[in-house]
Amino acid sequence: MTDITKYEDIHSELMGCDLIRLIYNSSKRVYEQIGSGHAESTYQKALLYELNLNHLNVDIERHINVVYEDSKGFKHCLTSERIDLYIHKNDFFKESDIVLELKAVSKTIQEQEIVQIKKYFRELKKDSIDIKFGIIINFPQPTAKSTSESIQFMLVHP
Fold it and tell me: Could you tell me the pTM of the whole model?
C-alpha cells in the first residue's frame, strides 16, 4: 500500500515535520519510561500527559458518530466510535488535526488497525473535518520469546 508509511521509511518526512517527530519522541519516551506489559489505556494516559506538556490540545476518547443516510435523505446515528487521541490543529504546528490510534499488542501493526483509522477519516470527513494523516502507535507487549525494545509507529493517509 502506498498510503502507509512505517517509521523506518519516514525519516525524511519526520525531519520536515516537527509535530510528527514530537509525537514519535513522546511515544518513545512513554514506552521507555513505563515499559511493556501495560494496558493500552495506561499508555494512552501517559502519552496524553506528554502531549499536553508540549502545549498540544488533545482529546482523549473523542467520540464520533457513525451516521447512515437513508434513501429518503434522513440521517440516522447508528453508533459512536472512539478515537484514542485526537490532536487539534494549533498555531505553532501547521498540520491539520491528527488522529492517533494506540495499540498494546504483541503482534505488529495489522491491516485491521489501518482499516480502523481510515474509518475514522471517513466519518470525520462527513462532519467536514479534513484529516491529512493519522498515526498508529503500538506499544509492544512481551511474548514467550521476546519483548520489543521500541514502539511501532505508522503514518496512515486517507
Answer: 0.85
